[in-house]
Amino acid sequence: METGDYFESYEDIGIHKLMLEDAPRNKAYRESIHDNKELFKDKVVLDVGAGTGFLSVLCAQAGAKTVYAVEASNVYTIAEELAAENNFSSVIKVVNGRVEDIELPEKVDIIVSEWMGFYLLHEGMLNSVIEARDRFLKPDGLLFPESATLYSAPCSIPSLYGYWQDVQGVSMNCLASKLREQASKKPVTEIVASDDLLSDAEVVVWLDLREVTCDDIKSIEMRHVAVANKEGRYQGICLWFTCTFPSVQTEPVTLSTEPEELPTHWKQTVIVLPTDVPVELGTPIAYDLSLKQSPENCRRYIIEVTMLDPEEVEHPEYCLCHMTKCILVRAMFEKYDKEYVGDAERDKEKGDDEKEDEESTEKENAMNLEEEKENCEVDNDGGED
User: Fold this and answer.
1) Which of 52, 69, 115, 163 could form a disulfide with 56 if both were Cys (CB 3.0 to 4.6 A apart)?
2) Catalytic site residue from 123, 181, 251, 364
3) Annotated catalytic residue: which of 114, 211, 221, 364?
4) Which residues contact 321 (CB under 8 A, 6 or more apart)?
5) Confidence (pTM)
6) pLDDT by residue (tens digit) across 349-378?
7) Which is it for the CA torsion 87, 88, 90, 96, positive or negative?
8) So what does this thing catalyse (predicted)?
9) Quick check: 198 and 230 in contact, CB under 8 A?
10) Known catalytic residue at 123
11) How far apart are CA 56 and CA 315, in angstroms?
12) Are 350 and 309 members of one domain?
């Protein structure tokens, strides 16, 4: 998607309808802003990629003095209408243009933006937020959200496998194979049930929006040895993300797209594997994952998954898989815990007992001295009489 096409795509109000019907998304932004009104009161806010102006109005409701709503597409006219509809025309200043190209008359206290795409980085809007931060945010300014984390886990994909084995009594595996072939050419966006995850999640990358640079997100790579926590079919890699917002007095709000949470318009992203691998509890699943910005278009990422032989890669120091080497390492750790950590705890208990005895003896000696002192005073009183 070229930059011009990207902004033109957001002129379709159906896209905005989809986002604004996303209750978990809207709730996370509203709570993070309205629960921290003291942060917004009389402050200057920049809304990057304001769209219809929904977030700008939330900031104005929270007491912002000025909100610069920057929107490059023609939807900026709706943002102007929305500001007027909610009686904030004097607060919300809609700016039509790319944040990279515009100028503002002042630095801002807060940047708010809904920049996340599928698998967090799709569409490359984070680059725009980073540039806005570097150009316009005060040194002690805040970003909403302020951090983001991308996760991965191996998974099953019933929508491309099991479902087609029996469609009302009709086997349709031939169609399923063609669907998988099509899906292998680009990631699939769909809702993944938590039961279809085959292991605990692994962090692919954690981004601190206050410090991350555009170079940091050009290429992200990780190697993971997951351990199956159930029996199943290893058919793909599932990606999802979370974002966390600043907070002063309340628990920080987290917007989560993980399978266990309520579905969002981001759903989850699945990279379909070329093979279907059966796994059982304790099976190690090794893979390399890379996300690289396209050199032709920074709004596109090239995602690659390389399936690895668990026998040939290094496992985590304490791996719960059923491979012999990992079982032996766990046994060594358990033996160490039993012999050395146990001895240390016993020594500590012994030391505590000795300390208690010493304290008791000291207390007893002090009491004896006090008693002797009182006896001496009584004797002296008797001598004077």
Assistant:
1) 69
2) 123
3) 114
4) 225, 227, 282, 283, 284, 310, 315
5) 0.84
6) 656 655 666 666 666 666 666 665 555 554
7) negative
8) L-arginyl-[protein] + S-adenosyl-L-methionine = N(omega)-methyl-L-arginyl-[protein] + S-adenosyl-L-homocysteine + H(+)
9) yes
10) yes
11) 47
12) no
24 class by beta-carbon count within 10 Å (0-12 exposed, 13-18 middle, 19+ buried): middle
Q: Are 16 and 52 in contact (CB under 8 A)?
A: yes
Q: Is 179 exposed, middle or buried (0-12, 13-18, 19+ CB in 10 A)?
A: middle
Q: Verify that 28 and 91 share a domain, yes or no.
A: yes
DSSP code per residue over 103-147: --SS-EEEEEE---BTTBTTT-THHHHHHHHHHHEEEEEEEES-E
Domain at 54, CATH number:
3.40.50.150
Which of 154, 95, 152, 100 is closest to 124 using CA atoms?
A: 100
**Parallel, antiparallel, or unpaired for β 147-155 and 92-96?**
unpaired
Counting the structural domains of the chain, the total is: 3
Would you say residue 287 lies in a domain?
yes
Task: Quote the domain boundaries for residue 43.
Answer: 1-114
Q: Could you read off the pLDDT of 17-60 as tens digits, one per residue?
A: 999 999 999 999 999 999 999 999 999 999 999 999 999 999 99
- Same domain (yes/no): 276, 344: no
| pLDDT score at 381 | 52
Specify the 3-state DSSP secondary structure of 256. strand
